[in-house]
Amino acid sequence: MIRMTVLGILCWVHTAAAGTHSLHFFAVATSEGTGFPKYVDVEMMDDVQITYFDSTMKKPVLRTDWMNETKGREFLETLTPYILFSHKKIPQSLRNTVQHFNHTGVHTYQDAGGCELDDDGTRRSYLSHTYDGMDFISFDVETMTWIAAVPQAVFYKHKLEADTAWQQISLDYHRRVCFQLLEWYLHCEMETLQRKVHPAVTLMQRKARESAGTDVICHVTGFYPREVEVNWIRDGEALLEEGVWSGEVLPNEDRTYQLRKILTVSPEDQKKHSYSCQVDHASLDEKMDVKWVPEAALNMGFVAAGVLAALGLIIAVIIGALIWKKRASGARSPDYTPAQTKEQSDASSNSINNDR
After folding, report:
1. H helix count then E strand count, the chain
2. Which residue of 23, 64, 112, 344 is most buried, as measured by CB atoms within 10 A?
3. Range of lowest pLDDT (8-12, 16-20, 122-126)
4. d(CA 195, CA 17)
5. Are 9 and 74 in contact (CB under 8 A)?
6. CATH topology agreement for domains 20-193 and 200-291
7. Which sequence spans correspond to the domains of the chain?
């Protein structure tokens, strides 16, 4: 059985970090012939990748700079046995499933799990497997049972339940080790995790794709911690839900977050009401309201006038070129008689008089 090593470096700060924090892993085994490693494992602390491992390597490596060398070594030594154990078991799960279904070609078997910790001490953990991208089987940590997501997975449920070593290791990691590593991270990174970075809000608009209305995009970015509330408000008081599309909170490269909320406004409502994007975040003393100012019809007229002026200039240039070309071709025509100069005209008159 895998045993957890004792972390050699202790952190003196022991204060709860705001929000929800997580330690998750994502692993995938792939059939041969794809050109990719047969097995890949990635560990994520919140939304930051902390380790990487694949079947071409001997051991996992750190992919983060938030731990110094000593802390990183202790952290990785604790996590490595579980990563290597998964490397042994997940490709085996792929082979068993492919053989059971008598499948050929390229197939994948994915393993995802981890734990979450709220600032009030609430704990959650999960473990699930997917075959070819479809839910296959999961492990209930509380009841210590494997649950088949589809009837086709019942055979593997019995196989896993008979594997007491795997079940015990999964239980040990998801009940104990995962939370110990997460709490250690939270305590050691308290200064970083307790920082508050206020968001930047930008409003953009575009023509709605499926209606005659306007899509107004409220883009909120650069904030930390992750928890944020973004709403569209009409006439300064009515919170809107209909006609609003919300994206997911996504991580930025600098360990802050971003979110988009899009409101679709009809031409009639645009004339009758005012709209603002309201943001509530831990970094703000009060809610931030950013009012949407629609593009004025006058501005659109200027744009249209500019386009027409440009078209007029292009047409004028084309017409001028055609006239010049016509005149030039006329000068080269055999039927064209150039106009006489004054000297030519006088000489011609004298010649006629002399002939007479």
Report:
1. 8, 17
2. 23
3. 8-12
4. 10
5. yes
6. no
7. 20-193, 200-291
Q: Which fold has domain 20-193?
A: 3.30.500
Report the distance separating Cα 212 and Cα 271, nearest Å.
14
- If you ran DSSP here, which 8-state letter would residue 223 be given? E
The 10s digit of each residue's pLDDT in 250-288 is 999 888 999 999 999 999 999 999 999 999 999 999 999
Report the alpha-carbon distance of residue 222 to residue 227 in Å, rounded. 12
Beta bridge partners of 203: 218
| Residue 323 CA: distances (Å) to CA of 6, 33, 82 | 90, 67, 82
Beta strands per DSSP E along the chain: 20-30, 39-45, 48-54, 61-62, 108-118, 123-131, 134-140, 145-148, 200-207, 214-223, 228-234, 238-240, 244-246, 250-251, 257-265, 275-281, 288-291
- pLDDT on residue 241: 92
> What percentage of the chain reaches a pLDDT higher than 90?
57
Give the Cα separation of 340 and 131 in Å (integer): 94
Report field, pTM of the whole predicted structure over 0.90: no
> Can you tell me the distance from the alpha carbon of 132 to that of 55, in angstroms, rounded to the nearest whole number?
19
Token pair 């046995």: residue: 81
Residue 132: partners with Cβ closer than 8 Å, 6 or more residues away:
107, 108
Contacts of 278 (CB under 8 A, 6+ apart): 230, 231, 232, 233, 287, 288, 289, 290
The Cα–Cα gap between 213 and 209 comes to: 8
218-254 pLDDT, tens digit per residue, is: 999 999 988 999 999 999 988 999 999 999 999 998 8
Q: Are 287 and 232 in contact (CB under 8 A)?
A: no
Total residues belonging to the chain: 356
Cα–Cα distance between 117 and 182 in angstroms, integer?
8
What is the C-alpha separation between 274 and 294, in angstroms, rounded?
9
**Strand 61-62 relative to strand 200-207: parallel, antiparallel, unpaired?**
unpaired
Task: Return d(Cα 35, Cα 270) in angstroms, integer.
Answer: 54
